[in-house]
Amino acid sequence: MPLSQHQFEQAVALIDAANAEDPNEVSENGKMCPKEHLYARRMSDMLERYAPEADDAMKLAVRAQHIQRWKSPRDAFPMNRQGYHKWRSELYNFHAETAAGLLAQAGCPESVIERVRKAVGKKEPKTNPDTQLVEDVAALVFIEHYMLEFAEKHPEYDEEKWIRIILRTWNKMSETGQKFALSGTLKLPEPLVPLIQKAISA
Are 186 and 140 in contact (CB under 8 A)? Predict the structure, then answer.
């Protein structure tokens, strides 16, 4: 059962309203805006560039990828590897269930809700094309908008650690996503280009 235009628009409105509650603000073109609201728009914009043929279910999944992320902070879990994995697991579930609840409010069909729940929950990334699409878009958004910012926050990281970080992002993407990243369409963070090239050639 496909989504009606009203259901889709209502779902987007609910997702955007939820992300607009983010108390963390960032600057965009000289104006301050809620951090996750900006991230969601960047995800949607990237999807349009990367996979313009994507259906409404995937447009909603991409929009909801970080839904209300601030409500599950990293420091609420032990600051070790085990704590990190537990945080990520619970975070994915939180995003999936929050998105599913908003889509249900918008009257979306259960088939669409379930697809979004699985994709946002990062289920079976290498075998579920919906999940892989969200992973691709998230990795592309990170490279274009957030990788350099992340690097500037961690001047203590050496080249070896950066290569591992870049490869971790790279390996999350499908071959199609990787090709798109190198196509010239994606704006690579210029200071990191030599490291990116070194990492992926290795």
Answer: yes
The span from the CA of 184 to the CA of 165, in Å, is 21
User: Among 94, 147, 150, 161, which residue's Cα sits nearest to residue 122?
Assistant: 94
- Convert the pLDDT of each residue in 92-127 to its tens digit: 999 999 999 999 999 999 999 999 999 999 999 889
Residues 6+ apart with CB under 8 A from 167: 199, 200, 202
Predicted local distance difference test score (pLDDT) of residue 91: 94
Give 33's strand partners: 26
Q: Which residues of 106-138 are buried (b: 16+ CB within 10 A; e: fewer)?
A: bebbeebbebbbbbbbbeebeebebbbbbbbbb
In which residue are the tokens 């939180």 written?
94
Q: Measure the CA–CA gap between 131 and 62, rounded to whole angstroms.
A: 10
Give the CA count within 13 Å in the CB-facing half-sphere of 104: 9
